Structures are given as structure tokens and as C-alpha cells.
Amino acid sequence: MKRVAARKPSTRAAVLMVAVVLALGACSGSGGKKAEERAGAAPGAGPRLKIAMVTHSGPGDTFWDIVQKGAKAAAAKDNVEFLYSADPDGGKQAELVKAAIDKKVDGIIVTLAKPDAMRDALAQAAAAKIPVVSINSGAGESARLGAVAHFGQDESIAGEAAGRELARIGSKKALCVIHEQGNVGLEDRCAGARKTFGGDLQNLFVKGTSMPEVKSSITAKLQAGKDIDGILTLGAPFAATAVDAAKESGSKAKVGTFDMNKELIASIKAGDIWFAVDQQPYLQGYGAVDGLWLLKTNGNVIGGGRPVLTGPAIVTRDNAAALEAFAERGTR
Amino acid sequence: MTQAVAEPPVTGPDERLGRRSPLWRLLGRPELGALLGAVAVFVFFSLVADAFLRATSFSTVLYAGSTFGIMAVGVSLLMIGGEFDLSAGVMVTSSALVAALTAYQFTLNVWAGVAISLVLTLALGAANGLLYVNTRLPSFIITLATFFMLAGLNLGVTKAVTGNVASDSVRDMDGFGSARAVFASDVGIGGVQVNVTVFWWLLLVAAATWMLLRTRIGNWVFAVGGDAAAARAVGVPVTRTRIGLFMGVAFCAWISGMHLVFAFATVQSGEGVGNEFYYIICAVIGGCLLTGGYGSAIGAAIGAFIFGMTNKGIVYAEWNPDWFKFFLGAMLLIATVVNLVVRRRVERSA
């Protein structure tokens, strides 16, 4: 469902002063009027920008929560008013982008999970001279649709990393658990993993919105194929369920996963889960806001028009402890 | 939905007055078509999937069936009473979140969270019922509204309380072990591990069936679903029955929610959306009419079982997963059509 961060449209502060970053934490993204006055009063403050992020996230997804935290941190640092909205439906996501254009924001951050649906909206943004940065999915489409930069993980490269990890932990026949049927990025991950894995990797579709369903489907698959010795899940919450399913069906399958959350780090430390391929969502949100800010205030383009890779970062038992504190506060 | 008479048209003398042989009585049961459909689906997957007939596989199928079936009990009773509950799917998540959040945030024994969740979930059901009887709006609209509100609350409150969109893990808290034993453990039967949800499911089906067929309340439910005005005229407490039915759905949501908490220890706040349709589908496959007044809890259980078999049978058969949803839809269509044909035959020859 739509979660449009409806905020009072603030009159843009036309205070163009020396472009020095406002002292860290001096204002908050939600501070509206107050922050504006402070920006005007404090010498050396940058212009207050308004940046909208429109993603294809379903509600209640831990991953997008971390993206937003990154974006908000950068917004607070850069004196940016940050607006967030999302809709998993491509057409509705495009409408949200158009709404952002109507609000005359200074920059738009989008995900391109459904690039065709977003084409028109991005053309409108270009016509309105609003710079667009894409994050997460759509590295290949980003430049063609007019985005100035892309922050994300190349899903195929990340898949290849996961395939190598699966091979490293000694798996010969493994499952690739897809929790959202029809999502191109997830298919790419499995295809990438298949390339480097060397063994037999089968796709398994599960209904990601119902954990008991996920569990019983993985259990059923393990019962049908007793020789399956590896499971690759594509989202952190599904990894823990895969571990349960393997335990219950008496399978020796080792579990690896994409993405992270704080429960997962504990499981990796405990040895229940062997590895996580982290695309660092915090970095995607942070990078996109910072990238737009740099573009607006200094004309910089991070990555020089090429996609900036935020992953894959591999987390295993060896480095889990070092990341625990960050996962605990929900930013890793 | 308040509907006019849902009884099939009867020619000749009232069929309810005539004496009928036990065989005819069996053929007239709402769940017969579903039973035949279940047998067909079972035989089909036994033939095409090697792994399907193993006892361990059967327990997985039962587990999948039970996670739908528990809710289908409450939902089918409500449908017999002529109403829908579209908030049933997210109510499961709400119930689970209440237990996990209260137990964690106040550092309580998890059983306290379980109890608080029971009270609040039943209150939710009562609220649905009260809104319905007081506004006279269709239950479809009322529960659609609560569906959205609950989905929003699940996310909003969880995020506000924990700072993340999932609840914190309650795995290492007092009472988790015993609560897990009650709501999410495995019971060994003849070397096969059967999830405790299967027993909850059977228990609920038995209780609901007994209530429907052997008690006065059961008669009230059929009467309210068939023709509420006529029922009120003969002294059936229509309002109380309706509120009770919504609370019945809430009770089932609580059991399902507790299973979520203790099977997975953390609850994701965005889950559950869309499941309400699966519960309704189970009830419909099982012979509940969308117009109310007709159906059975056993039928809904068989519907859930068909759903579990189809869902997992496709995995056991190792079919190309790209076609998964097509197979699922085709299976449901076949099961429902078998059900329909049988019922029409029975009605014609009765």
C-alpha cells in the first residue's frame, strides 16, 4: 500500500550561501520550518533541498527500512528534506514519481524494478529538469532512461559471488529459493549463482508473504530431493526459515543467503547460516541522497555515469562479529 | 452480506420433511463434492510425484493444510452465517505482533504476551462484528476497512516500537519453550514428525462441526445466514450470533498468530496480506456458498487439505516452477467444478 510521506510543502529557502556542509546532525530531515530557519540563520549553510525517493518496495520489508535509514542519515547531514513513498505496482510507482515532480522536488531517487513502467515518468522528470538517480535494481536501464547515476548491486555479479560461496562450503546440489515470482532481479541472482556454482542449482518458488508457506515448501522440496546439500535464499528472513526446514526434514543442507538483518548476524555467528551476500542497502540510500546533493551543489556525478556497485559484500563467520553492532541498530 | 434465501429451489414437497436413507443424507452433505475432489487430487499426485506418498511428505502436506485450515474453520462458520472477513489474513499477523511486541518490550514471560494477544485479537473480532451490526454496511466493506487499518497498524506500531519493521526475537525469553510446545512443536507419531498445528486444526474442525450440527448455536448460524429477518422473527439472537462469528474468526487468527510467533520467533510486520482470499477459497472448495446459509466446517477442512496437497504436490512433482501458479489455479478449478457437479446432481435427484 502507498506510504506517501505527506509533508507540508515548505517554501524553499532561497538562501544561497557559501557551500559548506552544515555541521553534522544540526538539523533533521523532518524538521521542516525550524530547520529552514536555522539554515537561513547559520552562516555557511547550503541550500535546503527537497529530495523524493520512490521505490517498488512492499510494506514491512526489513531491506527497505535499511535503505531509508541510510537516506535519512545523508539527508540530515546534507540539509535535505527527504520524502519517501513506495508501491510494488509499476504503474502506481510511476504515479508517485509524477506526484514528486508536481511537488517540484530538487531530485528524485527511483528503483527500476519495472523499467518500462517508469519510462514516461522519468521522461517527465527530465522535461521538468529534475535530476534522477536510480538505486537497487535497474543498473542496465538506468542511463538509458535518463538517470544521472545508479547505486546498486549488479544482481548477476552478486549471484556469481553467491555461487562461489556455495561451492566453497562444499555444496553439490542446491536450491535457489525465489520469494517473489516474476522479479527479474531475483531470477538474475539465481542465474548468476548457477554460472559459478558448478553443481546443480534448482529454482524453488515460495510465497514470500506467508512464512508457514515458505517453510512447508522448502521442507517438501528437501523431502523430494534427499541429496540436496545447499540452500540459497534471496532475503534474510527466509534464511532462518530454511534452516528450520532443513532441521525438520533431517536434511544436511547448508544455508546461505542474500541480504542481512540483525537476526541473521547472530545465526551466522552461531554457524546456522554459512554466508550472506550483502548489497549494503544503507549505502544505496545514503549514496543516492549524497549523490544528488553533490550534483546540485557542486555539479559532481559519482561513478561518472557508470553504475556504482554497493555490493556484493560477503559476510561469513569470520567477519560477522565486526558487523554485529551495525546490524543491531538496523543499518547493516 | 445479508442475503435472501439461499436454499436451492425445491420442487414438490419440502425435502426436509421427507425421510431419507443414510446414503441420501450423505450425498446431501455440503462436503461430499470436496471429498471427491480431494480423492482425485490425492490420486493424481500419488501417480505423478514419487515423493508424495511418503509418510514424511504427508506430514508436510498436512502442515501446509493446517496453516490454512485453522483459519478456514472460523472463516467457513462466518460464511455460513452469510458474512465475509477480509481482515482475517492481516489479523493473524496483528495477533502475532501483539504477543511478540508486548512480551519483548515489557520483558514479560511470553505467556503474558500470548494472553494479551488473545484478549486484543478477540476484541478486534468483536469490533468487526459490532461495526457490522451497528452500521448495517456490508461486512465486505467493514472488514476491508479493518484490513487496511490493521495492515497500517502492523507496520506503523512495529516500526515505532522497535525501530525496525520486524519484531525482536523472543526466542530466549521465559516461557518460549512451553509456548512453542503448545503452538509450534512437532509430535512424533509412528516415526513421523507431525506439527502440532495439525492437531489444533482437527480439534477446531471437530468443535465447529459439533457446534453446527448438534447445538442450538449451530441452528442459529444457519438461520442467520439463510434469512436473517426470518431468523429474527422466530427469536434467533441474530446480533449476538453475528458478533460471535466474527470473534470465532479472531480466535482462529490468534491460534495462527501464536504459531507464527513460536515457530519463527520474529514476526515480519508486512506479512499476511492476501491470505484472507486463500481462507475463503478453502471454504468455497469445501462447499460453503458465497451467499451464506449452506456449508460445513469439515468441508472447509477438506478444502484446506486440497489446497495443501496441490500447493506441495507441485513441489514434489518437481514441475517447472514457472508454471506453478497455473497448475495451482487449474487444480483449484478442477476441485471446485467436481464439487459443483456433485452438488447439482444431488440436488436434482433429491
From TrEMBL, chain B:
Q: Which InterPro entries match?
A: ABC_transp_permease
Broad class of where this protein is predominantly found:
membrane
What UniProt keywords apply to this chain's record, in alphabetical order? Cell inner membrane, Cell membrane, Membrane, Sugar transport, Transmembrane, Transmembrane helix, Transport
Where is this protein localized, as stated in its record? Answer: Cell membrane
Domain of life assignment: Bacteria
First and last residue of the signal peptide = none
TM regions (residue ranges)? 32-53, 60-80, 111-133, 139-157, 243-265, 277-307, 323-342
Query: How does the protein associate with the membrane?
Result: Multi-pass membrane protein
Show the PANTHER family listed in the entry.
Answer: ABC TRANSPORTER PERMEASE PROTEIN YPHD-RELATED-RELATED (PTHR32196), XYLOSE TRANSPORT SYSTEM PERMEASE PROTEIN XYLH (PTHR32196:SF32)
Q: What is known about what this protein does?
A: Part of the binding-protein-dependent transport system for D-xylose. Probably responsible for the translocation of the substrate across the membrane.
**Protein name per Swiss-Prot or TrEMBL:** Xylose transport system permease protein XylH
